[in-house]
Amino acid sequence: MAVDVPEVTTTSIASSVTLVAPASPKVGAVLDASFEELLEDPRVSTSTVVEYISSRTNATSSVYIYDLAEQVGFGTLTKIWSKAQAGTAPVIDLQTRAGAGLSLVGRLSEGTSSDTANGAVLTAFTSPQGLSLMAPALSYLPPATASSRLVVQVPNITPTGESFALSPTLASFATVLPILPENIVILASATSQETVHFTQLSYQLSGSHVVHIFDHFSSSRELGQGTFSLPEKDYGNLSVSEAIRLAGYSCFEYVGDAEAHTVVLALNGPLAVAAKAIANKTRSGFAVVSVNVLRPWDEAALRSVLPVTVKTIHVLDDVPNTTTKGPLYIDVFSTLLDSSNPPVVHSHRITPSQTQIYVSQKDSFKSFLASFVPGLQDPVPAIMKKLMFFGTPNTTLSDLPLHVEGTLSTSKSLSSRLSIDHDVFSKRGGITASRILLAPRSALDSVDIPIPIVLPFDAQTHGEVDFLAILDHTILKTHSLLKYAKPHSPLLIVTSWTAEELFSNLPSQVTKLILERELRLFIINVTDVAEKLISTSGGNQNVISNIVAYLAFMRMYLGGAATEENVLTLAIGLYGENVEGVDLAKLNSETWDALEEVLITQAPAEDKPVELKEFEFNAIAIETDDGDTVVNGAHLSSWHDAAKHLLFPSIFNPLSDSTDEEFPQNPSLRPELPERTYLVTCTVNRRLTPKEYDRNVFHLEFDTSGTGLKYAIGEALGVHGWNDEQEVTEFCEWYGVDPKRLVTIPVPGSEDKFHTRTVFQALQQQIDLFGRPPKSFYTDLADYATSKADKYSLQFIGSAEGSSTFKKMGEKDTVTFADVLKLYPSARPGIEVLCGLIGDIKPRHYSIASAQSVVGDRVDLLVVTVDWVTPSGSPRYGQCTRYLAGLQIGQKVTVSIKPSVMKLPPDDTQPLVMAGLGTGAAPFRAFLQHKALLHSQGKPIGPVYYYFGSRHQSQEYLYGEEIEAFILDGIITRAGLAFSRDGPPGVKKVYIQHKMLEDAQDLARMLKHEQGVFYLCGPTWPVPDMYEALCGALEKYQGMTKEEAGDYLEGLKEEERYVLEVY
């Protein structure tokens, strides 16, 4: 077994050498496979086998699939089988919520279901969190019978922390275990073989309800491990402990020194398996007990497995926090309390954050055990080889690790295991990490240590991987991945870049790491090789590309034994002499010539380090029978899914937090937003400028009654606008997507909340289809381009070299997401993927033009439509102003409140100087309304200087009648009105800064001696002129120098007495 590279001739950074490799079959469809074929096929995961067993009509009458199970990749295949495969039980979808388990109880209760009379063995799929929410309802389960019972299959994997990293913690289950009824059997399995057998036992224990918790964090998703079926015996009339024993297991498995003095006891799971592997290697004085049957708790069985030499027992309990008592500790303590010479029992409360450390940091769990059991041995064989592949989902080479493992798994002397994990949060479209462990079967113990324990995604790693492959070069610019490579190990990068381009695009810290660890860097352009060979054969480019990449891998894997002839012989045995019309000998030769070793001979120039992201396991992908890969997240669905939400709102609608609010938040109204949202009604939409005028400035009023919306003077209203209906319709037609199909999109920041809308509704109301794309969108979209020209163009625009092109497209051409898709038509991801790539429409904020103390349940806005023409002559419109301009009376609008710097001073007698240009008059209307209210109540108010500027008084004197009334009533002390286009031809235009100069002495006095406050709202261009006018006033009338005046205004900013809100 070799994972080094052959001796080759190397040159400088642009040098080329030759290398090669074969490929393995893709994971096949399981639709027509028999149970025996699924068991024996190492390319089929154990979780697939669990779904198969649990969905057969000879085992269950119905399968209830809760959303949380499917979100962690369990249940998707059962749904497919139920539609297409005879012998599959009917499937019912359910949403997780408190009390949802009552539907299962109702189905099993006598007299409530027609199924009960005919026999109803119900199966439910849920997650640990879902089980904890079901637990209170399960206390109402009727007694189990052979024809009426419940089996719950629980894949043990849970999102944790702020980043929703997936973890094997059972902390959520700890608090509800005590309330589960005694008539429920709880089984826990950790290895692939245990999981298959315990699943079968779940349906053989005919006198019990059963909850089976199995490891879905690692073992049940691994590929490469064939299993065998439970021996056919009569388990039905036996007790649980007898059935477990007959199946070849025990309630408590003891591993380690037969005369141990220290024992670690834990529920069967990945950490328990790791502990058993350590105990099996260490032996001396140390042992581990894993709990296979948590309920019913068999005290006699536990006492019988513990040797009399045991002095100390350390009990590991998953708990949500350190103040929660571990249920396992309570069981163990009470069992041993009455012993004549009881051992000391220590409780170790393992919180989710600790569990995450143990599965993500190398040797951290062994170090934890070593704190009370010194001298522990490393259970991982030194001869074991570790391979790692990083790529992106649903791209050409996403199947390469399956090809690699599929071939290696055919070896009788070699053990290989593959785990595939996804990170969908740190990069649009996601990143896939595939880990393969290889070892001679003779070197392995009986315990398979979970892959995450052997090879974790450790951010602090010093290099553990013997072979590292990067299947998408773009992720090296965003993620820290090369640190996993062991010093002097081979590194393969599949890239369309030349060696020089690669070197110039890699972040400096990545290049430095290659030099420091002396990695042997090889690159290959598999697309070029594939295209060259299929141009005449017409073969499938994806298939050929995977074979090319596999040939490159095998050349490196075989090390010194690799010759062109050897690799060709191996490849012919796998694929035959011809693949997709391409001669394999020719393909092998071309690949051999295309593999290039790159020597980096000097450190890169010092530059500012790029902050690289870490890979974090937070999503699971399921391969369906039709070859598609579904990563938990956005997906297309049918009207049936929506109908369930409408017919059963109590189950599917999100629960609101209990509150005493008179107007509680609607949990379905933009749940992804952190701020409170409200649904208000448009009552006035009135244009203020003449129709023939080229600027449409309009006044809006919204009724807020019954919403609980409150706002302060000067705050802004966030409007969640919609895209134009006609443009969305045209896009759907061009993109070839049915606008009536449903799309379900995850709510950001929530593991169990989703938006379900029609495609049309999503594109109109949620997805920022006509917004300006960031640079990352071009790079992400390139992954989906089938045209070489489109792919390279998108990659170029998204690269550092394409900055000028990106800037031109964004600032001059003002392209939208939709425009980019039309410019590069071969890049066409599925609509559900596209929604994730684009993201949501952001709210646009407008200064509120009313004081709630005056108008009551109403909020007013002053808006001007934004439109322009691109260099190509296409008209463009501001997304939200276009939406607001088209509002009809009675139309509902989703809004939120945003705090603003435009606040009134605490003392009503402080002078106010307000300068507004165009729609910048909005907040000052609110100020003046409030001042008028105080004046009407006989309260003193300070001087108010109001400056307003626009082009023409006759067309754009916004709220002119109100302003004149405020002047007559004495609310406005001095009004400086500047209409720049109303002067005679040839005369210098007058702006509001000129009006301010007329009052310079007053302004200087108020700002310097009377605690006056200056406000400016409007565009940014007059800011320097305003600043100069105020500085000049302070110089002339307060005796300041220019520098002192500038410093004084800067000080006013700190005091919130020089306030700018410009855009």
Automatic annotation (TrEMBL):
Protein's UniProt keywords contain Transport: yes
DNA damage keyword on record: no
Reaction(s) this enzyme catalyzes, per UniProt: hydrogen sulfide + 3 NADP(+) + 3 H2O = sulfite + 3 NADPH + 4 H(+)
Gene3D superfamilies cross-referenced by the UniProt entry: 3.40.50.920, 3.40.50.970, NADPH-cytochrome p450 Reductase, Chain A, domain 3, Nucleotide-binding domain of ferredoxin-NADP reductase (FNR) module, Pyruvate-ferredoxin oxidoreductase, PFOR, domain III, Translation factors
Alphabetical UniProt keywords: Electron transport, FAD, Flavoprotein, FMN, NADP, Oxidoreductase, Transport
InterPro entries xref list: CysJ-like_FAD-binding, FAD-bd_FR_type, Flavoprot_Pyr_Nucl_cyt_Rdtase, FNR_nucleotide-bd, NADPH_Cyt_P450_Rdtase_alpha, OxRdtase_FAD/NAD-bd, Pyrv_flavodox_OxRed_cen, Riboflavin_synthase-like_b-brl
Pfam families referenced in this protein's UniProt entry, alphabetically: FAD_binding_1, NAD_binding_1
GO cellular component: cytosol
Pathways involved: Sulfur metabolism; hydrogen sulfide biosynthesis; hydrogen sulfide from sulfite (NADPH route): step 1/1
GO MF entry, a single one: flavin adenine dinucleotide binding
PROSITE patterns on file: FAD_FR
Sequence intervals crossing the membrane: none
EC number: 1.8.1.2
Broad class of enzyme this protein falls into: oxidoreductase
Domain FAD-binding FR-type: 675-906
Names of the cofactor(s): FAD; FMN
Job of this protein: This enzyme catalyzes the 6-electron reduction of sulfite to sulfide. This is one of several activities required for the biosynthesis of L-cysteine from sulfate.
PANTHER family per the UniProt record, alphabetical: NITRIC OXIDE SYNTHASE-RELATED (PTHR19384), SULFITE REDUCTASE [NADPH] FLAVOPROTEIN COMPONENT (PTHR19384:SF109)
The protein's name: assimilatory sulfite reductase (NADPH)
Organism listed in the record: Lentinula raphanica
